[in-house]
Input
Amino acid sequence: MSDNILIAVAWPYANGDLHLGHIAGAYLPADIFARFHRMRGNNVLMVSGSDAHGTPITLRAEAEGVSPREIHDRFHKGFLESWEGLGISWDLFTTTETENHYRISQDFFTRFYEKGLLYETASEVPYSPTGKRYLPDRYINGTCPHCGFDGARGDQCDGCGRTLDPRELINPRSTLDGGTPEFRTRSHFMMKFSEYGDSLLEWLKDKNHWRPQVLNFTTGFLEQGLKDRAYTRDLDWGIPVPLDGWEDRRIYVWFEAVIGYLSASVEWASDIKGDPEAWRAWWGADAKPYYFIGKDNITFHTIIWPAMLMAYGDDLALPEDVPANEFLNLEGYQLSTSRNWAVWVPEYLANYDPDALRFVLSANMPETSDSEFTWPDYIRRVNNELVGTYGNLVHRTLTFIQRFFDGTVPDAKPDEAGTRLLAKGDAALEEAAAEIAACRFRAGLGVAMSLAQEGNRYLDEHAPWRAIREDREDAARTLVTILGIISGLKTLLAPYLPFSSQRLHEMLGLEGGIQDAGWTATGPEAGARLPQPQALFAKLDEEQVLAREMANLGAGDESETTA
RNA sequence: GGCAACGUAGCUCAGCGGCAGAGCGGGCGCUUCAUAAGCGCUAGGUCACAGGUUCGAAUCCUGUCGUUGCCA
Output
């Protein structure tokens, strides 16, 4: 009996390239999970898309003097290239700028409105008389009433870190033209989230498999009492409120972005699957939706979106798990786009192997706490663990068969010790499966690396390079055993290292795609001809990599740094 | 300011009531099939700090300091 597993992944703002933080935080764990479940024979639907409507996009558009849509189109295209290069295996990566997404987001609004869950309220909104437009909080600068810092923004003061209301600012001015904003009273819709606090707490009761930090945070948040929130904003970029006389208001970007998980599923069903109803299998009572996000997004995925699903009705499936990751730091500091303190995916892919990055980020994934990426560590892990332990086990075995057995899989049966090792290999497959299914990706990779080490140890103990001289049969038994271990490793590592696992699949003389080969350690048959082996991974030149990357880091930074 | 999490070996991280662990790096040795790769042995720690609970605390509780996220 196979499960229907929806893999819903955070929607990146289309206002800049992807960096390592995005990958380690959400996209890599989601992809490992998706590939694993496909190999196990489950029905996977993995979706996400570009968030087109966030403030960061309009900010960048105004800075460059182009339209928000142009910014969105440029970076959405870049995302697609990054996914391709990194092997992130979407069923659909769409965008919030589709007609389909507008329709479904407006349908949610209409449903909520008709159910009486949206009510009007008046609030004071900053308005620029010179620009003849309403201003988001971030578009207002002024003096902080708490610390006197002059560059405080309408939402937060960078001087003292306090969050602000734009009306508190002393001497407020628009960042667009420096003009003084006035505050106008505007009607907006509030969503009755407060009605769902108890139901959410009830729903959380059997979520003991969630990560403690996610569950504790969510429970604590709800126990303080869930408040109603403004559902609409005064913007001209975004999805219009579908009510007569309200067309100049937009649905708040966060509330339509989470609807994207559903609208992307619907789009996949009609446009890719060719069966408009096919999405229901992943949203019905027995579906298991997993949401892969970073820790800054927990509230929206464990509270707001489940509340919206409850409010919508139709028994749409609530999250099975929200394995939010913590953050990845870089060389001791937080990632920062403005200071160019980041490793950008397109630049990485221009110089290095995608599997090497997937390996290093998986080995050090921020599952339980913030973790650290450094280039020296990247080089060490690639050269010593990926190349030295795993790649070399494969290479020494395959070149040995090529050299001493004419590239033909020997016809021999493992002896007692070999049979024991192969049993360990089978056990490792199940052990890793349990770890991955529970979203413990670091641990799953650890199982694979331990098995590779066992393989190396076995080779050293049985020394086929000595046996080949006096007892060819013994050497053959050893090699067949290790071939079985390598076959298991190729499967075990396929979710983590899809490109090299496919190459290894072919080097073992096996046909087709590894993703269709199942979760088994089945290797080549006796007598099978193996192609000339190639190294799975290249060693890195430490000096060269460090020279290039350390020079890149922070380059182009025009602000003062204290580091 | 409130809530939540984190602080463990030189580095990156596990462990989360019962003799302080792994990988990498360091030291010593073995091996030569292999991308100078592999294997074994070894050194190293007041488990942030101060109290408390317990026969027993890195682990549970309280407080302090530091880091992070969310909220005000």
The radius of gyration of chain A is 27 Å. Residues 375-404 of chain A form the longest helix (30 residues). Confidence is low (pLDDT under 50) at residues 557-563 of chain A. The longest strand of chain A covers residues 118-128.
